User: Fold this.
Amino acid sequence: MPDICIRPVQLSDRDHLLRMRVALWPKASAEELGRELTLILEGKAPVTLPHIILVAETGNRSVAGFLEVDLRSHADGCNPSRPVGYIEGWYIAEDHRHRGIGRKLVAAAEDWARSQGCVEIASDTWVDNEVSQRVHEALGYEVVDRCVHFRKTL
Ligand SMILES: CC(C)(COP(=O)(O)OP(=O)(O)OC[C@H]1O[C@@H](n2cnc3c(N)ncnc32)[C@H](O)[C@@H]1OP(=O)(O)O)[C@@H](O)C(=O)NCCC(=O)NCCS
Assistant:
């Protein structure tokens, strides 16, 4: 296990973090992801429930990965009577994978959700992201639902 520090994101992480957000969400525009990130880092994101971005910093002070977690008023399969922690984004740079860094970030996200009073945390992934599904299960997450989304032009 390399020397890894999990900490809240700082303004100086912006460029590095943006590259990883673009890699995680390739269908979103880099400009939009950048605008959203700037608002989050400046504390001006238009959100009402608490949220945090955690980063994994290596011994040589580079950022190996990140996890964005927030509270949602409800999530599939969870008790609807109270807010739950929700993993919104989770990414480890390819050359840092399989070293337990993703697990450390999730443990920190779970601690954060507990500190917000949550007794459950939820997450999602694409149906074709089999690695993510296996990793979630390795970390104790159970599948509660599988969805098919539809659209129609009107
Ligand atoms: C998913 C991801 C964040 C995992 O990060 P990671 O640092 O490689 O994960 P870890 O090394 O902490 O592994 C955690 C557990 O998952 C298992 N695991 C990791 N990679 C795996 C793989 N490719 N296949 C099966 N299991 C795997 C590990 O064995 C480990 O379990 P163990 O501790 O019981 O052995 C990383 O693969 C990634 O960034 N993927 C691309 C982006 C993505 O899909 N994000 C999730 C979208 S929700």
